[in-house]
Amino acid sequence: MSSTPTHGLILFAHGARDPAWAAPFERLRALTQAAMPDTDVQLAFLELMQPDLPTLAARQVAHGVQRITVVPVFLGQGGHVRCDLPQLLAQLRQAHPQVHIATVPAAGEDEAVLQALAAYCVSAARA
């Protein structure tokens, strides 16, 4: 990663009481960071784990990030993605008006993600 990335990518996950729950998300973050060395790739949580989205976004902005993309690593567009996330994004945009903050649909809504999960399920059934 360059010393002063201007783009931040925040993988936004639910969070859980068990710290081991975050392990696959940490691996996803590391894989994504490796593929995007000039982007500050971080992991934030809605609840139960830290850092939360506002804290992490503020940290990225303090380090010079000018554009943040939030990727909800949820399987579907449930209440957290449809209600909680838009409220958090509105708060972030108000707190950091100089920063472009964008989001995309939940990861599980993406066709390639669904195809990968389907392939995994088929492989598991044939094992």
Automatic annotation (TrEMBL):
Transmembrane segments: none annotated. Pfam families: CbiX. It comes from the Bacteria. GO terms for molecular function: lyase activity; metal ion binding. InterPro entries: CbiX-like (IPR002762), Sirohydro_Cobaltochel/CbiX (IPR050963). Keywords: Lyase, Metal-binding. This is Sirohydrochlorin cobaltochelatase. The lineage of its organism: Bacteria, Pseudomonadati, Pseudomonadota, Betaproteobacteria, Burkholderiales.
